[in-house]
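Chapter review: from sequence to fold.
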Amino acid sequence: MRNILSASIIALLLLGACSSESERCNLKSEYAAVSVQPSISRLDHELMKLRQAEEVIHFMDAHPAFADNFLGRQEYPHDSLVVNSLLALVQNPGIDTLYQEIQATFPQDLLNKQFTEIFQAIRYYYPDFELPQIEVGLTGFANDMYVNDKLLILGLDFYLGENATYRPINIPQYILRRYTPEHLMSNSLLFISQKFNLSNETDRSMLADMVYYGKSMYFIETMLPCTPDSLIIGYTAEEVKDTEENADIIWANFIQNELIYETDYTMKLKFLGERPKTVEIGNKCPGRIGMWLGWQIVRQYMERNPEVSLPELMADTNAQKIFEKSRYKPRT
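The token string follows.
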């Protein structure tokens, strides 16, 4: 993934930007014909049963990726320290409340249904896609997500939403609002999309980054056709509305200031990085506005080039060609 997007963010129309949500949902019935069977391990259940050091060691040996990436085992000079840390976590008086809220918010049937649907969608376009093993747990807000080709680990305590008894600390509100049950699938797909989203690493332009992220969001939209834009990009509904209504002003700013071919990392970060607002454009313009623009460019490219399949889009590393063939114009 291009390095402006951080792992903590966490952080697409099928038939064109004018399609209605009901039209977008039509593909869901086609996806449903694909046969998949997700494998979900409830590590949260196992964690709550740990009482002895030997049990913790056995748990970490059975789930090494969880131990390394969620419990930070590699950061400790000796396993005894991470063992003591995990025992302290499961013995914390508040952990039972956290655990019960996870069970109420994410019952097994719901997770099975949600992951079945997104894996059906991926297999629809990529028949050879190998389903990753899914592990869901809680870590006292140590980590939210880890993805590789064979494994997807989720810290469900992050995704309980604003009404949870406990919430992650030291996360700005404009990022924290993306940690809700409704964002779990779109956030998961954002990282899964990296497997398919190819890029030209020698192209350091703002445009290359914009198109890269635009392809990721189009991928999410394709896999979740009934999902509103706000949940895909992590804006509020009001921010989406304001951005759409002022798309011409946003685009004019990029053109007038010659931003699309900017290669300076600091400058690119102002328009692609995590910020509450893109103040260079306006006090109401949300952060990551370059990603939103990239999404609109990709949408218009796919609308104007219907012969291009999703796998072909994701494998295309020529951002300049995608931009030119999109003939992008803001819809206001």
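Two observations follow directly from the output. The chain is about 50% helix and 5% strand. The first strand starts at residue 40 and ends at 42.
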